[in-house]
Design goal:
The protein is of the alpha+beta class. It is built from twelve helices and 19 strands. The chain is globular and about 75 Å long.
């Protein structure tokens, strides 16, 4: 499993240690729990002149999920790994809903308020809130890891593998489009979009070919929206037929493929818009930042015989990747961004009018919504132990969301705080299959 972060009594970051050794220190009273997520202990004594092993934070940014790994370059050991799920789409939906409510109010003339959207000017380089949240999530975790362990360098997947630009920096226009990388980025994106499986039979782990949903012989284009993946047998059976003719006896699959074809290139646009902004902000942290390419990441992973996951992609970012990459017993954390609540003063009905009272106190009896608590109810109909996220109420009786469901009206005197709400939820589970390592 991932190692445990260690601080001394002066909160100086030390080398991470094995979970078994940390458990022994806690049992002997030589350390205490400093933080639950990521799990960190603090020693009862100060370590004078510690011998620190430099670590490297490696980041593989993604539109929906970003892989993060801590790697010891000299030994090749992966110390800690996580997959961070963003909430960009949730933010976009919330902003769309708010805009619709405000515009509806103006059109009904329920209050006089002039439209101001055409008068506002944003600073150069400002990102939309949905993209800004992705950058801020990664920066939050990079800074957090820098405080908890001796980090000396950062690696980020920044660009795609582009030999044309290396050989001829002035290449542009049609000459660039018809060079040695013609179709490379398109193929990589189609593989990701269709989840590395045949669209017609769901076959995996077989050679896949690009297939034109509407064939070229019937004036189909080479655009990404007209491309899908097909195994060799399906591609040969389909031949030059249109997908509607080929799947006339499977309407459910046909409808699914046609709907998936219309999916926008939103994920690719989000990554392209945020990667350079993230790179610029990482450099401000004062550590050397290494840029890697997507092609190099894939090459490193394939040469080491590793599966494709977000955290393994992160561990293989950049030329600094050690030849023997040790991932034995690593269990990555799955972190989901949930935000810090809403600034909306009260709930609205479907017409945009308030339907609840204004917000009450943020903290009640020392707890706030989102805190992780343990409630031990000693008597009554709800006798038992419950662990989960709490939703506070001013009357002092809380709701607790557990893995089995929501438990209502638990009095605060039964609750004990485990971890404060920090805008993220955490889960640690093993991968379906990891390759054997020495």
């Amino acid at each position: 499993m991932s190692q445990v972060f260690v601080l001394d009594a002066n909160q100086q970051a030390l080398n991470p240690m094995h979970a078994g050794r940390a458990r022994l220190l806690l049992k002997q009273g030589k350390a205490a729990v400093y933080r639950r997520y990521p799990f960190t202990i603090i020693l009862a004594s100060v370590v004078e002149q510690p011998t620190l092993h430099p670590l490297r934070i490696k980041v593989d940014p993604g539109s929906q999920t970003t892989g993060i790994a801590l790697v010891n370059d000299p030994t090749g050991e992966v110390v800690w790994a996580a997959e961070l799920t963003h909430r960009g789409e949730q933010i976009k939906r919330g902003l769309d809903k708010r805009r619709a409510v405000r515009r509806s109010r103006r059109q009904r003339k329920t209050r006089y308020r002039k439209a101001r959207f055409d008068k506002r000017r944003k600073r150069t380089g400002t990102l939309p809130p949905s993209l800004e949240s992705r950058v801020c999530n990664v920066l939050t975790w990079v800074r957090r890891l820098m405080r908890l362990c001796p980090v000396t360098a950062i690696s980020q997947e920044l660009v795609r593998f582009d030999t044309q630009a290396m050989e001829n920096p002035d290449i542009e226009g049609v000459e660039y489009q018809h060079g040695t990388l013609k179709g490379y980025e398109v193929r990589e994106y189609v593989l990701l979009k269709w989840n590395h499986q045949c669209a017609y039979c769901d076959a995996r782990a077989v050679p896949l070919e690009l297939d034109h949903v509407r064939p070229r012989s019937k004036h189909g284009s080479n655009r990404v929206s007209n491309l899908t993946l097909a195994c060799l047998s399906c591609n040969q059976r389909k031949d030059h037929r249109d997908v509607r003719e080929f799947l006339h006896d499977d309407p459910a699959r046909l409808a699914r493929i046609l709907a998936h074809m219309k999916a926008p290139l939103r994920d690719a646009a989000a990554v392209n818009a945020t990667r350079w902004a993230l790179n610029a902000r990482l450099k401000i942290l004062g550590l050397p930042v290494e840029g890697g390419s997507g092609g190099l990441t894939k090459y490193n992973r394939v040469m080491r015989g590793l599966d494709k996951t977000h955290w393994l992609d992160a561990a293989n970012v950049g030329r600094s990747t050690p030849a023997p990459l040790i991932i034995k017993d690593i269990v990555p954390w799955h972190i989901t961004a949930t935000g810090h609540g809403s600034r909306q003063m009260c709930r609205m009905d479907r017409y945009g009018f308030p339907r609840t009272g204004p917000k009450q106190h943020k903290r009640v009896q020392g707890f706030q919504t989102g805190d992780l608590v343990r409630a031990v109810v000693t008597s009554g109909t709800k006798q038992g132990t419950y662990v989960g996220k709490v939703a506070v109420r001013t009357r002092g009786s809380f709701n607790i969301t557990t893995a089995q469901g929501v438990v209502t009206d638990i009095h605060h005197r039964y609750c004990t705080l485990i971890a404060r709400a920090d805008g993220y939820t955490y889960q640690q589970r093993k991968e379906a299959a990891l390759p054997p390592t020495a």
